[in-house]
């Protein structure tokens, strides 16, 4: 039985839970993180020295970093339909997963901390506007890619890349500021919302 450590309102934990649903994997989950068990406790630090969620435990194998976890699960548990074995197709999937983790994720940080988390450390309005502008530019890159595929991020089929990016689109939709209209991102959001696992872990009102 897989064990997942992390709270369900974490976007990174939801990546893992969404994939588990897509692959029909059974798991146990424990609440760790803000409002629950502290990741600073020694027993958690022993599993993940970064004190971040999620952590995956698969028997005696321990793994942290959400994108590494979803890659592992797809490789280990018959997820080839989502994570192609063809080197070039897999490289494209990895490219967009890494783009989400680096470019897209970093673009929204200050804006989300101010507009959603109401962090007292993120009250510089100029930095909020800069974050929104950068976030918008990255979303325009995604919109242009979706205009090419007319479906999912890497093509006509749903892949592993759509999990982190699909959750990111949900965050874009829910963060309260004036959004430009991105037609292909909206169509993508509607397409993902036809998947039961996305309705459970993505389009579920959580930011």
UniProtKB/TrEMBL annotation:
Entry's Gene3D superfamilies? Answer: 1.20.1050.10, Glutaredoxin
Give start and end of each GST N-terminal domain: 1-81
Q: Name the InterPro entries for this protein.
A: Glutathione-S-Trfase_C-like, Glutathione-S-Trfase_C_sf, Glutathione_S-Trfase, Glutathione_S-Trfase_N, Thioredoxin-like_sf
Q: Which UniProt keywords apply?
A: Transferase
Among CDD domains, the record links this protein to: GST_C_2, GST_N_2
The GO terms this record gives for MF are:
transferase activity
Task: Write one Pfam family the protein is assigned to.
Answer: GST_N
Domain of life, per the record?
A: Bacteria
Q: Does the keyword Plastid apply?
A: no
Residue ranges of every copy of the GST C-terminal domain listed in the record: 86-207
Similarity comment: family membership: Belongs to the GST superfamily.
What protein am I looking at?
Glutathione S-transferase
Organism, as annotated? Acinetobacter silvestris
